[in-house]
Amino acid sequence: MADTTGPSTAANCLENLKSYVKTQKGLILASEIIISLIIIICYVSSLYGGYSAIAICEMVFAIVFFVIFMMELDKQIQVIHWVWSDLLRAGIGFLLYLITSLICIIGGSGDGARIAGGVFGLIASILFAYDAYTIYLNLRSNIQHTAAPTNDRV
To answer: CA geometry: angle at 116 spanning 55 and 127, to 5°?
Structure first.
């Protein structure tokens, strides 16, 4: 029989969620998820819904990395370098949001939802750029603090 005296798995997951959202990385990822959802709503309600694919992909990637970092699976699955993968995700998200937002703002005359999606996309590109910058600083500090192996034998 299962032991029912300890805390349930759902309660443990909820506590992990609450504590991870209070960290800087958790807040950034949660903000990326929320703003991507807002962009999806704007693009879907516009006349040209094709731009919503980028927002959907970026939201799914942000959710995946949020869950991986929240549950500390990055420490268990060491086949992938999660910090570099997160930097790649944030950098690509920045570029894609910047390009599509500029296209939507410039060519979206008469379509208010498309322009709103473009404006939120510019905000998202700033958020993704900030995320990439913080990841870069984290990588840079880890590289500087790691000592290189030396051979003291002569």
So the answer is: 50
